[in-house]
Amino acid sequence: MTSSLNLLIMDPPYESERTTTAFRLIDAALARGHSVRVFAYEGAVNLTMAGQAAHPNPLHGTDVDAEMHPTTREWVERLFAVAGGRLEWVNCGLCVDERGAGDWTNGPRRGGPADFTGWVTDGSATIVIPTA
Prior knowledge:
- By secondary structure, this protein is α/β, with parallel strands linked by helices.
- The chain contains 5 helices and 5 strands; from the N terminus they run βαβααβαβαβ.
- The chain has helices at about 15-30, 65, 70-85, 95-100, 115-120; strands at about 5-10, 35-40, 85-90, 110, 125-130.
- A 5-stranded parallel β-sheet has the order 4-3-2-1-5, with helices on both faces.
- α1 links the parallel β1 (about 5-10) and β2 (about 35-40).
- The chain is globular and about 50 Å long.
């Protein structure tokens, strides 16, 4: 039986290292053959926004291509690409509505807290990465 890992993340893009940590945990679990279910809550619903765009860095004198600044949308897309159907990503619908954050990349679906509580009862492990 393949084990499943549930993650609840709350931070919006680029605000802390917690987002990068969550992405690394998801990637590592997928690489080891586990199924992963992500519940994006509060500001984390913005991680999947389709309209995210890379930017230049005038302080470094770099253009968009040279800066190579990944967007969280691109990270999520990559996770779905390597998951082979083992990644489920749910954006909290209440949080989406509150933030007007409904234009996502392919992969995530809308859900609610009941999704996460159901996962906790039938998953192998659950990690909550809270805001500070």
